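Worked example 4.2. Below are the chains of a multi-component assembly; read each line carefully before continuing.
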Amino acid sequence: MTGFLQIIRRDLHLAFRQGMDSMMVVMFFVIAVVLFPFGVGPEANILARIAAGVIWVAALLSSMLSLERLFQTDYEDGSLELLTLSPMALEIIVLAKVVAHWLTTGLPLIVAAPLLAVLLNMNAEGFPILILALALGTPSLSLIGAVGAALILGSRRGGVLLALLILPLYIPVLIFGVSAVDAVVGGFEARAQLLILGGFLLGALALSPWAAAAALRQAVE
Amino acid sequence: MLHRFANPTRFLRFADIIQPWMAVLTVGLGAAGLYLGLFASPADYQQGESVRIMYVHVPAAWMGLFCYMAMAAAAAVGLIWKHPLADLAAKATAPIGAGFTFLALVTGSLWGKPMWGTWWVWDARLTSMLVLLFLYLGYMALINAFDDPTRGIKASSILVLVGVVNVPIIKFSVDWWNTLHQPSSVMRMDGPTIDASMLWPLALMAVAFNTYYVWVMLIRIRTEVAATKVRSLRMKQAHGS
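Applying the procedure described above to all two chains together yields the following structure tokens:
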């Protein structure tokens, strides 16, 4: 357990030392969302209709952009090899790194989301459910994305490849995340969608550290 | 069985025997299926002549899914028992499966234009086939993204296993999201609901597509084995032994 916390602390330290880097992801998120009113026109009704979808898609893309660095720097400076040699299970190490990734990117996205929802004229009833759905969904994104981030280590043109690998796997989270918000805005309950998002999170929590650890092992072999 | 054919030389001898048979079966059954489907079977009372697209579309969609499962099984065998041939089989299957999936999407779109009045609808089945195509493309991109070919094969084997866990989840999510495609009328517990005159060409085409897959896969594995030999010969030359 101490090792687990130490890795989280180390990754958070690194993120804060680099300062603006993790803020950049939030800025990308904001700018990507702000582009939509220019693209589809400023009518309040249309924006309110697509608000949940736009915010979720932008969150997916920003989470994916930041994933490339999840293992890349450790892989390049050799610390990944040391981590695989440590007595701790590699699955736990992966989990710790994912937690740190979520704290530095997923959490800021959740904080920024209500502001963007205001800009897109989203119905105020949708705000709490948007935050709740993002809180359940973004950890799943980090977990699934960790598998992709581990697979592309050492490949040519990793970033574009990562998008091709993991965006299709993000689709279920996107569908239920948006549908939860749309249900509440439309006057229904979102219990089922939230339960399914929670189910995805638990499933990803149980399975993806294994897959990511297997991918890391063959990367440092 | 598994270990018997893990030896490339023995496998190639076996492939030499069955490959011509697969070619003959593909051409023969394919011709028979196309004749029955295009000329000898009746037009549908609702869909008219365009029902004939189904004789290509439905087997192609089945094969798209089947190839992904075959690829996953081969990748699992390759990862667990480290059979080089299983790795090659997975690699050889990917483009064939992607081709079948693409064919299913294109024929579906051609069928959709007269039937639904549009080339594309965001219906559950179409969307999941599209996602399946992306999974194939991701696999093929990853396998070719490394300078060391064995790295690519291992990484993409893990990817295809992750994909297999996800395929049912994606399917279920997309079903929830939207549905317009008619439910399956062949694969049902109480037997097929379509007439024998239509079932025969469909079955023949399905078998022909299967033998085509085996045929092309054998050719591709043979090519891969040859390419590996060429690579190791070049390495030997480069090291000046």
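Take a moment to check your reading of the output against the notes. The helical segments of chain B are 8-40, 54-81, 84-116, 124-143, 149-177, 196-238. The interface with chain A takes residues 79, 131, 134-135, 137-138, 141-142, 145-147, 151-152, 154-156, 158-159, 161-163, 165-166, 169-170, 172-174, 176-177 of chain B (CB under 8 Å).
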